[in-house]
Design a protein that fits this description.
Two copies of one chain form a homodimer. Chain A is mainly alpha-helical. Chain A has one domain: Arc Repressor Mutant, subunit A (Orthogonal Bundle). Helices cover about 50% and strands about 10% of the residues of chain A. Chain A is built from five helices and three strands. Chain A has a three-stranded antiparallel sheet. The longest helix of chain A is centred in the last third of the chain and has 16 residues. The first copy, chain A, is elongated. The N and C termini of chain A lie far apart (about 35 Å). Chains A and B meet through helix 1, helix 2 and helix 5 of A and helix 1, helix 2 and helix 5 of B. The structure holds a DNA duplex.
DNA sequence: AAAACGTTTCCATATTCGTTGAAATATGGA
DNA sequence: TCCATATTTCAACGAATATGGAAACGTTTT
């Protein structure tokens, strides 16, 4: 992954609502999730949601497709993987032993924590 | 790593100059690097640099110590590692096979690419 | 065709961000 | 003490960001 794309991806995820959105899409899996469902789950206004989807899409983290009158958004796992690789490489330069050890390689099992704090506003 | 810290770290790295700064510090290793050296290498004004250092420090990605009249900044590898773990966990929920495979675990060897585009302005 | 539904576009607003120039602060040396 | 060096603080600015309301758009149902 090239630096500008990495910056774009980081910026896209560096916002509470967008990170929540992305998490939800990751949880939803490759089939994705309708915009309206995301709006309901997270308590976001539809236009605000569109704004954030645009950013995620521009960063290549998400894809859209139409299905009936719904827009289905889905996480691009490949992009996320690229980002993690980018960070790992740029984190471990010159001191591989200090960073990204076995910890991140062990399958940790599905973790939850978020998504229970929806309907904030 | 808790979500708000992750967002802070992502935001801190989601900016060209700051990402370059952090990379430079990673390259410099645990002993760190004087603010002035970073300014020289990247061609940034000292006050601008202070601004970015503050953000990196606030996000826990960097530490400072005084040494003579220089301020030595150093990357906090632990924080970076936490961030990568956070992303990996939040990326792979429900579909471990799709994301963060062996690729990121293989030591890829030291990569360069940046730092040669300094003195932009 | 009309109405309902799901989403996006447009416009406005308050806030945050990145950068700059000038002045202030802290340390070390003559 | 006076001066140079290294960095931070302060005030200001334009640009980008996040959000909201109202209207428009495309699709399905009737």
């Amino acid at each position: 992954m090239e630096t500008p794309n990495a910056v774009a991806a980081l910026a896209a995820l560096a916002q509470d609502n967008r990170l929540d959105i992305f998490r939800l899409l990751v949880e939803a899996g490759p089939e994705g999730m309708a915009a309206g469902q995301v709006a309901d789950k997270l308590g976001l206004a539809p236009n605000t949601l569109t704004f954030h989807f645009d950013r995620l899409r521009f960063a290549g983290l998400v894809t859209v497709r139409r299905e009936g009158r719904s827009m289905i958004y889905a996480a691009r796992f490949e992009a996320m993987n690229d980002l993690v690789s980018f960070l790992t490489e740029n984190c471990c330069q010159g001191s591989q032993e200090k960073c990204a050890p076995a910890a991140i390689c062990k399958p940790t099992g599905v973790r939850h924590e978020a998504v229970s704090r929806a309907r904030r506003r």
